Amino acid sequence: MMDRLRRATRSLWQTALVISGLLVLAVVAELLPPLQAFDAFLKDRPGVSQFLQILTLGMAILGGLMLVLAQFLPAPRHSLSTSQDEAESLSPPLEYDEVKSGSSRSFSGEASFSAVKEAWRLRAWRYDRSWRIFFVMMAGALLMVVGLFGFFVVIGPPLVKLLCGGALLYALGRTAWGFRRA
Questions:
Q1: Backbone angles phi, psi at 82, to 5 degrees
Q2: Cα radius of gyration (the chain)
Q3: Taking phi first (over 0 means left), then psi (-120 to 50 degrees means alpha), and beta for anything else, what does residue 108 get?
Q4: What is the full per-residue pLDDT of the chain (182 aa) written as tens digits?
Q5: What one-character-per-residue DSSP string does 27-51 give?
Q6: Which of 94, 106, 153, 173 is deepest in the core (most CB within 10 A)?
């Protein structure tokens, strides 16, 4: 009983801290001059704001379509001097599982940052369909995330601009740092 009470109290404190942090962030967002200037710029120029909204939504839609339609990409053509086995031996491994149940099937795959860097360096999308699908899906995911977060940066109040812009910059920075270290 006491353990349950401690967990509930801890959860309540964590919730209070998150709410307090958001309130502090809201005050900071309202006081940051660059954020205020950007918000005023977008409000004073509705044409620019509308263009950015269309651009970011277009990026998000294109990214979503790339994610969904990547599985229908054709297999790459091989030169006459390279056989299928030789082409596959040149590319780094991309591990994936296919599960068939009844009339449906599902896929799951994984690749390390170092394998992705190596596949990019070797231009594996030219001769390996699985890497072609992987790179198109990752480009789609990047477009979709940047488009959606960018849309909320464009249309949101200063707090939303700060949260979405900060989260986007953090995620992109950590991903780039991870690729650099791999």
A1: -115, 125
A2: 23
A3: beta
A4: 778 888 888 888 998 888 888 888 888 888 889 888 999 999 999 999 999 999 999 999 999 999 999 988 887 776 545 555 555 555 666 666 666 777 776 667 778 888 888 888 888 888 888 888 899 999 999 999 999 999 999 999 998 999 999 999 999 999 999 989 87
A5: HHHHH-HHHHHHHHHHHH-HHHHHH
A6: 153
Count Cβ neighbours within 10 Å for each residue of 129-164 and write b for 16 or more, e otherwise.
ebbbbbbbbeebeebbbbbbbbbbbbeeebbebbbb
pTM of the predicted protein model: 0.75
* Pairing of β 104-110 and β 95-101: antiparallel
What ranges in 45-157 are assigned the alpha helix state H?
46-69, 84-90, 113-121, 129-155
Residue with tokens 């390390």: 112
